[in-house]
Amino acid sequence: MSMVTEFEQQQHATSRVVFISLAAAMGGFLFGFDTAVINGAVDAVRGSFSLDAARIGFAVSVALLGSALGAWYAGPLADRWGRVRAMQVAATVLAVSAIGSGLVVGVWDLMLWRLIGGIGVGVASVIAPAYIAEISPAHVRGRLGSLQQLAIVLGIFMALLSDAWLAGVAGGAAKSLWLGLEAWRWMFLVATIPALIYGALVFGMPESPRHLVAKGRLEEAGNVLRQVLGLRSDVAVEQKVNDIAHSLRSEYQPKLRDLRGPRGLLPVVWVGILLSVFQQAVGINVIFYYSSTLWHSVGFSEADSFTITVVTSVVNVLVTLLAIALVDKVGRKPLLAIGSAGMTVTLGLMALCFSKATGSGAALTMPEPWGMVALVAANAYVVFFGLSWGPMVWVLLGEMFPNRIRAIALAVAASAQWLANFAITSSFPSLAEIGLTFAYGLYATFALLSLGFVLYAVRETKGVELEDMTD
């Protein structure tokens, strides 16, 4: 038996690595909570500050510009200070932003605090999947990496649930609640709770063994590997440390120039960028940022619109659990292909449904049975996304890049994702004024293009050690 084979048989997922992965994925919970909490506040904020479609679109999506900025600097920050310290910074920024957003006096300071919160989300979005990938055994890395997406969808669910509860208690998102503050302000303020929990959990997490090896702290790295992989043999620990050191010899200070390739960037970097862009271009965040407004506009009451939005987020959580069960059995690429095909059909059906609507804006109405068909299609769309592009992109971004460029390449890909998210989210109110049929037809076109991209460009990474990833 070779030494490599012996090592692969020895490593296994300890309860400690599962707990650590869950704690790291709490950053994903904040990611989902902070970005989705605006859903229940959109109409109230628009009314409070008398905003037109363009300005409410920017107010909702400005956090995503901050996320792009945070994602861009997360890699260098993580390489210099460590993955754990970077997560601590993200938790602090998110807590401060939540308080500031809830106490704003005008739309401009709301945009400022949302921008700051976005920076924290961007850092968390990069560091959590990278950290989980770096501490996980290869044979369960997909499932542990999928915890990031599970945490995101749970964060979305809790944000929408708290929005619905606060609006229900107050009698409407624009009505006063406790301390004379409107319910929409409390929607932002409650985000301080998960931020503080995340910060507390991070303090008990070990540093990534790959970061420790990169900094020359080999003994500490070996101790962490014993804890998270359950390695019993000193030979196996030493071999793993040496494997990491060998793969990291050119990674100590990764720069953008390391990503250069024959077509501007290395092929694997282009794949990462396009995975990020397509994940957003199919319009998923329109469902989670604007769904309450959307369903209200086609005849559902405000209370029913909140309920529908919460139910949709529950569907998202359930299918993400299914994705976690399948990712290391079926593989990343097949699930992406299934998701792309399903989203193309369901988005096309939604476009057809909205073509039957009459009126515009708040006066938009949809005759029966098209309203219910649109509702079913929207939830089916969420099923296909939650099974595939939601979790699989984060799994792939955390593991697909070679060790020597992982941090900087992930930062570039995540920044591209946030910029695409901003473009889709900020443009939706204006697209909706042109026509929802056009908007959803556009997203369906992107879903179809994503299918071709998966079939021809995405490589399967199931079961591959991080040290064996290539350009």
Task: Explain what the structure shows.
By secondary structure, the chain is an all-alpha fold. The protein has a single domain (10-205, 250-468), classed as Up-down Bundle (Growth Hormone, Chain: A), CATH 1.20.1250. 76% of the residues lie in helices and 0% in strands. The protein contains 20 helices and no strands. It has helices at 3-10, 15-36, 42-49, 53-81, 83-102, 107-135, 141-170, 183-189, 192-202, 209-214, 218-229, 234-247, 267-281, 284-297, 302-330, 332-355, 370-387, 389-399, 406-434, 436-457. The longest helix has 30 residues, at 141-170. It starts with a helix and ends in a 14-residue tail after the last helix. The model is unreliable at 1-13 (pLDDT under 50). It comes from Lysobacter niastensis. Belongs to the major facilitator superfamily. Sugar transporter (TC 2.A.1.1) family. Residues 20-462 form the Major facilitator superfamily (MFS) profile domain.
